[in-house]
Amino acid sequence: MSETDEQTPTIRKAEAYHNEPHTDFSRAENRDAFQAALKDVEKQLGQEYPAVIDGKAVSSRKSIVSLNPSHKSQTVGTVTAATVDQAEHAIEVARRAFEQWRKIETTHRAEYLEIIAAEMRNRRFELAAWMVYECAKPWTEADGDVAEAIDFCTYYAQQMRLLDVPVQCDYPGEENTYFYQPRGVAVVIAPWNFPLAILTGMTVAALVTGNTVIMKPAEQSSIIAAKLFEMIRDAGVPDGVVSYLPGFGEEIGPALVQSPDVDLIAFTGSREVGLAINQQAADAPPAQTHVKKVIAEMGGKNAIIVDEDADLDEAVQGVVGSAFGFAGQKCSACSRVIVLKPAYDAFLERLKRATQSLKFGPAEEPGTTVGPVIDEEAFERINDFIAIGQDECTPVVEINAGKLSEEGYFIGPHVFADVDPESRLAQNEIFGPVVTVMRARDLDEAFEIANTTDYALTGGMYSRSPKNLARARSEFRVGNLYLNRPITGALVQRHPFGGYKMSGIGSKAGGHDYLLQFLIPIAVSENTLRRGFAPPPDDEK
Ligand code: NAD
What we know:
The protein has 541 residues and is α/β, with parallel strands linked by helices. The protein is built from 17 helices and 23 strands. The protein folds into 2 domains: 46-298 and 504-523, Aldehyde Dehydrogenase, Chain A, domain 1; 302-483, 3-Layer(aba) Sandwich (Aldehyde Dehydrogenase, Chain A, domain 2), CATH 3.40.309.
């Protein structure tokens, strides 16, 4: 090692951490266990779930009926739609609970997360089965969702233990300490597409850092959220520290976001709602004595570049998996493919055949890779985009849902070629099984197309040229860049996840600085050159 190496290390290694393994469905016993969980959960469909504030079940006159997207006549369950009054009550309760919760030792708070993770492991297939019914997640996707939720618990527990060690920077006669305090009351507003993982991640991050939480799940995944709340409560987290507040976002959302008693909002969802929240949270009503912290993870319009020398077998597989897994309903999904001219025709032909071979059907069927979309509203929005594609571009694959569409919200995979990079289809987040393919003259043009959207979430490139891959590292403007591999399936710690531009504000979920957003750093400096100490009063001797 040279002298310079000793002074400035060039690599910072991440601490040891083991991700929860995904289930191996090639093993018969796992397939049987999953089928059994599906049967078992099916018997529990149709129940009612109240909101829970301060440990007490509360209901209202309105409710949200959660339907199975694969079989829209099947009710997964009914949840209370909380009112604005109930939202305000939940904030009051969280404010009170904060005074005790913030004093709990970090290591104990971390243990709660580990207990929740252990319970998720015990109930792994059951939780995944709920996601198959409520959000039409195919088996492997639902299983990955539970694994990620477990990872968020164990990783944030580990990270908080590290952050709990104060940084000391003393000088002769001066003691300097740097440490963290929680912010206060956190409102967690989650999307439906990673119904367990994202809600768990934001909630446990707030909890382990010492904040109290109002957990507001997406309307479409409120039952899975009720299961998460059950596990938090069973782990022994005191009443009031977390409230389960299902409800309509546009009704209770503004009351939660604008409350002067809320310190932090952790949001994941669409750009439209994220920007509105950011704006509302910036206003400080007269009763508010602090500036709110907003974490907002939003959408994407992600591209994969296929270089002229790319291995097309790998590129096609990577594009198909990234574009159509969970019917393209991932913020990380590939929705634009930019192919260098010499490879364009061959790539398109192979993409067509690979897309046609996908198994499209109800999520509970084991081989399904493309299930239905989440609900009626999404079904209509995606079909409107497909109509635009039929009008403006060259349809290459259009898989018709046929009879399936009578049963659920099914939209078959669609591929459109010769798409204008500036068109509506190429610029808007569609959030469904629709992929656009564009031709680029050279790599300069490919990067230009890739970077010409408002978003910067994920991106990928398939290439055999080290020089071109190096260019991607510096020129492809995305938060998560994937080279010669699919662009979805982020793993906690290994691929901390999150974007910038209109894709989000905040540090990456599952990354080593994520928890800092939930904390306030404090620096204390004490002059220790005192001349004698005041003696303690008699009653303290
Ligand atoms: P959405 O914005 O419609 O809803 C998200 C949450 O916001 C829900 O809980 C909803 O009830 C709530 N909400 C709605 N209106 C509100 C309001 N006025 N005030 C406060 N809360 C309100 O998003 P969605 O359809 O649930 O999720 C899909 C979107 O999420 C996509 O855009 C996707 O890209 C994005 N997403 C991003 C990430 C990421 O990490 N960047 C991850 C997953 C999903």
